User: What shape does this take?
Amino acid sequence: QVQLAESGGGLVQAGASLRVSCTTSGLIFSDYAMGWFRQAQGQEREFVAAVSWSGSTTHYRSSVAGRFTISRDNAKNTVYLQMNSLKPEDTAVYFCAADRLRTFARSDANFYDYWGPGTQVTVSS
Assistant: This one.
């Protein structure tokens, strides 16, 4: 019933930009905060960015602040992650997730209710 689907991943060179998207269905999109997480091969899943239901509150992990921008379009049921100045350390599968505590932008993956299958982002040197 509830589905999240990421798109836009790919292979890019260091310093390039990429935008990944997550389109949702089966839920009232504006009732959820949205987050992006990533998992590198052999590593634990980590928080990347999150945005509240209205877009007024955002949080980023320190290593991506100033390079990545999270945004959402409630009319399109879609959340985006614009990634600039990409580094090899950004290589990972990127997942979007929905959190029903809509006024916050939480970093703990355990509080998110729904997850997409992920999209691969690879940054070469």
About this structure: The chain has a mean pLDDT of 97. The CA atoms of residues 70 and 81 lie 5 Å apart.
